[in-house]
C-alpha cells in the first residue's frame, strides 16, 4: 500500500474490477479518458491482466475511507531514462483526492523506483485535471495542437511533467 494524506493506493483486487468496469463504461468518464466505445467485460478483464502483469506498466486502486474511488497508474516506465507516464481516473469525486493520489504516486516513484521525471497527457478542456496536476507540482511542458477528436471537434492535448526535486 502507498499512503497519501487522505487516500491509499492499493493493488487492484478482484473486488475492485466490477466497479472499475462500471466507471470505464460511463459516458462522462469515457469523454475524459478518450475511450471511444463501451468496453466489454472480456476486454476489461484482458486490460486488467495486461496492465497488472506488464513490466513497464503498473495500476493501483485509489481508496478513500476504505472505499475504492478510482484508479491511478504508470505506463511506459523507462528505467534507462528514469521516467514514466502517469494516468488517473476517478469515478468518485472526493475533494483533494486526485491531487493526493497523484502526489502519493509521484513521491513513491521518486523515493522507491528511482525515477527522475513523471509526465502525463491531458485534454486541454479538462481544466479540473489540469488544476489537480498543477497543485501536485506539474508544469505544462508542451502542447499537441488539435491532437484529440471528441464531440465533433479537435482539441489540443497538453503535456505536463514533474521532475524529482527531493
Question: Your description of this structure?
Answer:
- By secondary structure, the protein is α+β, with helices and mostly antiparallel strands.
- Helices cover 32% and strands 38% of the residues.
- The protein contains five helices and eight strands.
- It has helices at residues 17-24, 27-33, 41-53, 97-112, 127-135, and strands at residues 2-3, 8-11, 58-64, 67-78, 83-90, 117-123, 139-150, 153-163.
- The protein has an eight-stranded mixed sheet with strand order 1-2-3-4-5-6-8-7, sandwiched between helices.
- β3 and β4 form a beta hairpin.
- The longest helix has 16 residues, at 97-112.
- It starts with a strand and ends with a strand.
- The model has no long low-confidence stretch (mean pLDDT 91).
